Each structure stands twice: as structure tokens, then as C-alpha cells.
């Protein structure tokens, strides 16, 4: 099995510490494996029901909750954010205040940003905006104020930039429903899909994996209470203990923990033959170029959408959805090949943006066939 070889090689070469990899073809699980360590220093082996800090795997779950609320006409995706957050007025560099809609938030076309995409003296860094992974105890109201104090990167709807938009979206959903975001997501998504191990808190701390960070050329290093990890042109800040602090706001973009099985259950619900959550048009939607995925990729409501496989040099079919999570995760859903892969690791950033997710993807197509 090619997937076994890829996983064994990554662990033997100490590119990752541990992983859970699941694959489903035609709606049935065809591969399942836990490998490596959940806690290397204490010799704890990885287990299939391990709980991971999900980071940006949170985003499609919150986006799905928003889309369901839109279907119920609780919210209007074309409406301005200020309808629910009247004090949220980020400005363009020229001082003007454009309208940001929920549609802009869902598709990361609002003009917002992330601190890890900026240099150390960038506006988000100066304002101490949280990316949703750090600053335990920070309130949502305070972080919204910090975000609104920073200039927009571009006029809403004119470009694409990965951002804290889903955190802002979470605040909108709270105001629109008068419920906390964790309750909304449980009611609309994780509850109906029986995702019992996925929440904005750790359901079972005994199954929670220890997070590690790249330390090349040395083996991955165990994360401390605060970590600054180089990524792209900046640094991502991690506070692994954040999820245990009840005062930390529930980050719609990065705040959940859960298992590979739970997230596979979510992705299976998106299959054309089983639209348990979303309409096909919402799943297949494409938009401005998703710069983090390179040529051939657009961006929809739930993640990157493949529009030109040849340009992307990918074995995946047109319409494939994929994304990842900063703690070391990657997933994709190929609707034509009817192939889904969920790969969670405890190693940032190799498990998300290193060679490992690409190798897992390629091995899955060799093992289970393409379109």
C-alpha cells in the first residue's frame, strides 16, 4: 500500500511525529491508520480516535453553520456585517469605510488579513490581533476592536486574502441567533452528524495529542506554552493551552478540537448522493485565486476549489475541495473520483504545508484510483 510507505517514510525520517490518515472511496472507508506517537517523550502511541487541535479545519464547520442559517433565513449572506456588528468599521488606507458582507467573510474577500501573513511591524501585529491560535483569555469583543482598528488590505470583493474573517463571521452568528458559537455549531453541524468528539473544548483530554513544531534539520520539537513558528513571510503564534481557558473566545477560524473520524463524517455528508448539510451549488462555488494553493485553485465557502488540475499539477478532479490546519492537517474531497482523504498530524507545519500532505494525496490516488 503506497499510503503505508509514505507514512512510514515520514515518521522514519522524523518529518512528522504522529498521524491519523483516513480515506473513503464511493462513500466507504477504504483506508484507516494511526501511526507514530501522540506524545513522543512519554512514548504514547498515536491512536485512531486521537483528539487534535483542529486549527483551520474549524472553518468549514462554522461556514456550514452559517450556510444552514442562511437557508433558514436567519441571516442574509448579501447583508452588511454592520447589521449585526454595528461597531465593526475597518477602513481602507484612504480613510473610507466600505461595506463588508457575510458573503465577503465566507469567501475571504473582505479585505481582512492574518498576522502571520504580515511582517513583524505589520498592522495586525502592532494591534495584537489574535489569529485564533494564541492569546489565551482574549475576548471576542476585544479582538473585533483590534481587527477593526487595522486598515483593510483591499476593497471588499476585489481580491482574496486568507484572514480572520471566519472569526468575525462567528461573532455575526452569535448576534443573529443570541446563542454562543459553540452551541450554534453543535446544533447545526456536529450534533446532526453525530460528531461527538468535535467541539470548542477538548472532549477527552486523555486522547489529546501533544503538538510539535518543525525544527529542521533537527527532529520536530515539542511545543511549549508559547511558540512562534516561521511560516511563509512571517510567524505563526501558538498557545496550545488556549483551548483549556474558558475565557478564550471561540475562534470560528481556528478554535475547535476533534478527531479524524468526525471530520471524515462531515466530508462524507458533502457527497452528491448524500447532501446532508449543503446544496451542491454552495459546495462547488469558486471565487478569486486562493494564493496559498497556487495556480489552478479558486476558493469557495468551505476551502480551496480546484478549477484547473493541469495548472495545479494535481491528480485531483476539477471541483475538488481541499484545505488544512496550522497544527499539521490536510484534507480533500474529490467529488468526481468520489475520493476523500483526511490526514491529521501533530506536527506544524509539515503536516499542513510540507511534503507529507502532497505525498499522502498522490499515494491515495495510486492506491484507490482517480477520476
Provide key terms for this protein:
19% strand; Beta-lactamase; alpha+beta; 2 domains; 371 residues; 8-stranded antiparallel β-sheet
Protein architecture, described:
With 371 residues, the protein is of the alpha+beta class. It folds into 2 domains: 2-55 and 194-221 and 256-368, 3-Layer(aba) Sandwich (Beta-lactamase); 63-190, Beta-lactamase (3-Layer(aba) Sandwich). Helices cover 27% and strands 19% of the residues. Helix 1 (2-12) packs antiparallel against helix 12 and helix 2 runs parallel beside helix 6. The model has no long low-confidence stretch (mean pLDDT 93).
Provide a concise account of the structure shown:
The chain is of the alpha+beta class. It has helices at about 1-10, 60-70, 100-105, 125, 140-150, 165-175, 180-190, 260-270, 280-285, 310, 350-355, 355-370; strands at about 20-25, 30-40, 45, 50-55, 210-215, 220, 225-230, 235-240, 255-260, 295-300, 305, 320-325, 330-335, 340-345, 345-350.
- Residue runs with pLDDT of under 50 for 5 or more positions: none
The succession of helices and strands, N to C, reads: HEEEEHHHHHHEEEEEHHEEHEEEEHH
Q: For the CA atoms, what is the radius of gyration?
A: 19 Å
CATH topology (level 3) name of the largest domain: Beta-lactamase
Shape: globular
Q: Judging by the overall fold, what is the CATH architecture of the largest domain?
A: 3-Layer(aba) Sandwich
Distance between the termini: 19 Å
Query: Percent of residues in beta strands?
Result: 15-25%
Strand order of the largest sheet: 3-2-1-14-13-12-11-10
